[in-house]
Specification:
heterodimer; A: alpha+beta; Rossmann fold; OB fold (Dihydrolipoamide Acetyltransferase, E2P); 2 domains; 6-stranded mixed beta sheet; 20 strands; disordered C terminus; B: mainly alpha; MetI-like fold; 11 helices; 0% strand
Chain lengths: 359, 263
């Protein structure tokens, strides 16, 4: 990674009365795979459209390699997009679709044919030149859309939920393949998804967005293991959020008082004894014990088997609901049973730092 | 499976008979020897010979074709540009504007004819092909406008965006992407408009002037002197042409339908 490629400065956008983006500031490094992760309606697609030039921000600047491109039309930016629904031209065959960008640049026909052939090899669709888009499967359309964007060797490739319409198995294959392409070509990818697994699998850095704001930026490890806010912990890691009061602060661990029980958690900056704290404990890190004196008292309310995982729903004395999950069946726990919820100190991460402490 | 007798089949047969029997009669009697259309006295191609020799009628046919072509061509340009433009702008009175663009279809022809007569007289335009083309263009526009508008509404906006994204300017995008995709709608709207222009009597009578006849006006005028089987022969020829056009259209429709699946 060498230097900054794209910079967003305080981008604001509204559609009528609703503020879609409330001041996005972000810089993207050359060669990185950056993912915008967020629920639908969080403004990630709008951000991408502003970068592509398909939408104009009300306020703020878009800088590409230091140059202000905010007012440049999409056809004059070295940025290409893979659209959510592929947007292949239905009246052109695969070759004409992929070669469209080069035709506009008035490249010689022989060169276009050769480069289209190379692109088709790259996306493993050799011999598909003469097919019409209507004759392709979803995955094949996806590959054509990627080839059509990549053939222009853009400085930045934008991908708007490109795998959203594919089935799970094909999605996994395409994830690997996209990552392979990105490494091979060294092109900066800006990827949009609402699927946390996809984001974690593919990205160098993840930007979690929420309601037109950036919630947290970091590597997949930081986002997953050290979420800064309850929202990120819940959205990315399906974490349980448990409230307590800080009792004692150590070097690496803190002691937290929760429902009269002393529990341990990871230390975080700016923490004071006596303050309220929210802990994020991911479902798979929450252990359910049927014996012993340690841990939070809870009652099992439900047990279900989902996607190869056993989910156990617990209710604390205060009425708060927690979910614990683990692979495989575990027949010993039954609904109504009294249990204790425990976790390892490093699995409980304080979230929502300052703003909650003041409250 | 054994086919079951249904009352609905009887109804369907009856309705089809009601619609097509008159046409069949006209076609059959175009081959009639007799001058009277009351009874069939024998097979003859005589009336087709008479038709082929009838200069006035051929001239009127030529006028109608030229008129139809000119007015549907100008209406295609105006209507298409209108629909494309309307799809891109957003303002409060847009719905009203779109409604206004289609009103000519709903105004009774007799009123439109009167209005054109008065208006062209005021402008002191010489009545003839020019006034006919203007009048016909006016009522042809809505057909094309509505067809193209419907097609645009079903069109994926991201296709144009993709072209822009790949480096095409707005004009290039219009001709590379928009035009090919709305072409079927422009074509079917134009066909409809041509058909409307081709058989128009009412408006044409008001604005055609003293010397120029279109085919429907000519046929209408002949009614006064009595219809000869020559008209039957003419109708048959036109019917054959229409059936041919419909067959071609069906074929084209299937061909473009292949693209639509992907949208």
């Amino acid at each position: 990674m060498s230097g900054e490629l794209l910079e967003l400065k305080n981008i604001k956008k509204n559609f009528g009365e609703t503020d879609v983006l409330k001041g996005i500031t972000l810089s993207i490094q050359k060669g990185e795979f950056l993912t915008f992760l967020g629920a639908s309606g969080c403004g990630k697609t709008t951000t991408l459209r502003i970068i592509a030039g398909l939408e104009a921000p009300e306020e703020g600047q878009v800088l590409l390699e230091g140059k202000d491109v905010t007012d440049l039309p999409p056809n004059r930016r070295d940025i290409n997009t893979v659209f959510q629904n592929y947007a292949l031209f239905p009246h052109m065959n695969v070759e004409a679709n992929i070669g469209y960008g080069l035709r506009i640049k008035k490249r010689p026909k022989a060169e276009i044919r050769g480069r289209v052939k190379n692109m088709l090899e790259l996306v493993q669709l050799e011999g598909y030149e003469k097919r019409m888009p209507a004759e392709l499967s979803g995955g094949q359309k996806q590959r054509v859309a990627i080839a059509r964007a990549l053939i222009n060797s853009p400085k930045l490739l934008l991908l708007d939920e490109p795998l959203g319409a594919l089935d799970l198995k094909l999605r996994r294959t395409m994830q690997t393949e996209l990552k392979r392409l990105q490494k091979k070509l060294g092109i900066t990818f800006l990827y949009i998804t609402h699927d946390q697994e996809e984001a974690i699998n593919m990205s160098d850095r993840i930007v979690v967005m929420r309601e037109g704001m950036l919630e947290q930026i970091g590597t997949p490890d930081e986002i997953y293991n050290h979420p800064k806010t309850a929202y990120v912990a819940d959205f990315v890691g399906n974490a349980n959020i448990i409230e307590g009061v800080v009792e004692e602060i150590g070097e690496e661990k803190i002691r937290v008082q929760i429902q009269g029980q002393r529990m341990e958690a990871e230390a975080a900056e700016g923490m004071k004894a006596g303050e309220k704290v929210k802990l994020a404990v991911r479902r798979e890190n929450l252990q359910v014990c049927t014996e012993g004196e340690n841990g939070l008292e809870a009652v099992v309310t439900d047990k279900s088997f989902q996607g190869g995982q056993l989910h156990v729903a617990l209710q604390l004395k205060t009425g708060e609901e927690l979910v614990a999950s683990r692979y495989g069946m575990d027949a010993r726990i039954v609904p109504g049973q009294k249990v204790r919820a425990v976790w390892k100190p490093e699995h409980a991460v304080p979230v929502d730092g300052k703003q909650e402490a003041e409250a | 499976m054994k086919k079951k007798w249904k009352w609905s089949n009887l109804y369907l047969g009856f309705m089809l008979l009601l619609m097509y029997l008159p046409l069949v009669v006209v076609v059959v009697f175009s081959f009639n020897e007799s001058r009277l259309s009351a009874e069939f006295t024998g097979f003859s191609l005589n009336w087709y010979k008479v038709l082929a020799a009838d200069r006035d009628l051929k001239e009127a046919l030529g006028n109608s074709i030229v008129l139809g072509a000119l007015s549907c061509l100008s209406a295609a340009v105006i209507g298409t540009l209108g629909a494309v433009g309307m799809a891109r702008v957003r303002y409060r009175s847009k719905g009203m504007m779109e409604y206004l663009s289609t009103v000519p279809i709903m105004i009774p022809e007799i009123i439109l004819g009167m209005v054109f007569l008065v208006f062209f007289s005021m402008l002191e335009l010489p009545f003839g092909m020019i006034t006919l083309v203007i009048a016909h263009t006016t009522f042809c526009i809505p057909y094309i406008f509505m067809m193209v508008k419907a097609r645009l509404a079903g069109l994926d906006k991201s296709l144009e965006e993709a072209a822009r994204d790949l480096g095409a300017g707005p004009v290039r995008t219009f001709f590379d992407i928009t035009v090919p995709l709305i072409a079927p709608a422009v074509l079917s709207g134009s066909l409809l408009a041509f058909a409307m222009s081709f058989d128009d009597v009412v408006i044409s009578i008001f604005v055609n002037g003293p010397r120029l006849n279109t085919l429907p006006v000519k046929v209408y005028a002949q009614l006064k002197t009595g219809v000869t089987p020559e008209i039957n022969a003419l109708c048959t020829v036109i019917l054959v042409v229409i059936v041919l056009v419909l067959c071609i259209w069906n074929f084209v429709g299937k061909w473009t339908g292949k693209h639509r699946k992907s949208e």
